[in-house]
Design goal:
alpha/beta; six-stranded parallel beta sheet; nine-stranded parallel beta sheet; globular; 359 residues; single chain; 6 helices; 33 strands
Length: 359
Amino acid sequence: MLTIREKWERFLKTESTTSTVSYLEPLFRFLPDNTAQHLWINSRVLPNSEVVAEVTALKEGQALIKGDMVIAYHCGTSTKRYNFERKDHLSEDFGVHESKVHSEVIHRVADIFTNNGAQIIADLKLMKPVGEPTYSSSIQIIGDHPILMKGAKAEACIFNTTNGPIYVGEGAEIMEGAMLRGPIAICAGAQVKMGAKIYGDTTIGPGCKVGGEITNSVFFANSNKAHDGFIGNSVIGEWCNLGADTNTSNLKNNYGEVSVYNYAISGTEDSGMQFHGLIMGDHSKCGINTMFNTGTVVGVGANIFGGGFPKKFIPDFSWGGESGMVEFEFGKFIEMVQNVYKRRSKTLSEQELAALKHV
């Protein structure tokens, strides 16, 4: 229901800024201020009340670690930044404290979908929706009532909240015949098409349109899977579009561990997981009847089409399918992005263009 940033901001009751690689910083609220007190938090750490208490207890010159990973450090008014993956970098400048509590950490992209069900339940406590919504008499509800925010629409659908909540954000719509089994988050302005089947531990991000069958997957904002087809144990980035009858395999025929491409080693590695579907980067698209193998990784700005299974790793700005790939010409890619944005009354910013050029 919430991004990692939003989780921390609700716990800390303040806004945050971002430190990241230089080509991405213009896309975020990075405000280097040498007069403010700087408490830096590792963005891979999912907050809970216990770890938040440890972080907020840090004083200037103190750092919080867990094993070899840095959770947070307080550097006062200094704007110097440190590596969160190397605690030894802190030893000269900080008094280091070992965390005594458990916190979930995002190590791989797949950790987003494996943690999602528990995070939806945790986020509901942070959201604290006010008031009891009015439900249409055409809805069938099993278990506790779902959470429908102001302006949400739902007619002639089935909500099963036996195993967890179903959250429907402001302005979202659940069409007739859709069947939802929590925990599920349907975020603001999203649309669930007629007859859709959505299983638990799934988030449909703001502005998304989805149909068909989805289980244990996270769609980031403004991505579409508007037709039939199956998506399972997957993470879909922003501004993606999956053509009609796109299917992902999330389980190997031999029920073995799924191997997945790792950018850090420029090769595949065992995921240690039996269920692992598709990872798709921002602005990627696929044509009708596309079939993705277990553990497929698609980069940014790819356009995939044709019969058969495309390769399990599809680099950024690839154009093609099983029969071969060429580079997606950048000017045509940007034209496509502008056309997509126009449909949502959005324009491509100079900061986004620069980041895409860098990739």
